[in-house]
Amino acid sequence: MKQSTLHQTEPCRRISEILSRIGDKWSLLVIRQLGNGPLRFSEIKRSLGSISQKMLTATLRGLERDGFVSRTVFPTVPPRVDYALTPLGCDLLVPVRQLGDWAMANAERIERSRRRFDAAHGGEKSAAA
Amino acid sequence: MKQSTLHQTEPCRRISEILSRIGDKWSLLVIRQLGNGPLRFSEIKRSLGSISQKMLTATLRGLERDGFVSRTVFPTVPPRVDYALTPLGCDLLVPVRQLGDWAMANAERIERSRRRFDAAHGGEKSAAA
DNA sequence: CGGGATCCTACGGGATACTG
DNA sequence: CAGTATCCCGTAGGATCCCG
Hints:
By secondary structure, the first copy, chain A, is mainly alpha-helical. In chain A, 67% of the residues lie in helices and 11% in strands. Chain A starts with a helix and ends with a helix. The structure holds a DNA duplex.
């Protein structure tokens, strides 16, 4: 293990930041929905169902801030706002999908490990409860 | 947009879960450190520096639960516990590194977009403050 | 319709003290 | 040395009301 090992902390921060960014409760879902093409605020909201309008607003703001989605306002009488993936946003989808594929492929193994762990540890500790 | 669009919500949940799992503050850092080989509790702690022992314990427990790291206890007088990446954990590193590469490659673009956004929006809104 | 402001709760996560 | 338990705070995130 060379010095570069410790030095790697910096790149890792970057990764963490990205992961935290899209790893929150809604960002990924929104990005994926927008992957099918531009959508209006309420269309996104309806497609996700359970999201609150506050969180959708916040999520979209964050994604817009990072340059992943673009926001287009139509100054019509009933306000209309379209959200769409930017090139950077589309680009992001590539590695994200890689991770997604991995997740899909290994989800079962993870869940099995999880159940095994819970059974083993939960069983011997909270047995008195 | 076909029905499959809505149906995709399920795989996305999986991805979100994985992302949330490793997207927390410490999991990725720990996984990366263990990528260099097995480490003891305090070695990990020291290598990360700022992590509290509570969070390190919690993080390791979570990773162990999901089957990403293995925990080996040596019943010696001064307790010694080794943590190592499981094959699944190593495997996870592949797509994670893909995302990491992307993050590294695009970090500057994101940060620029972020600054631009902050300058534009923060400037016109909090001007009164 | 889009979204800002406010209130409130749950949880992540840090500091500290104690145990085996 | 490794780990648990407790306290405490900040933020994520939901519900609701209000405004253009």
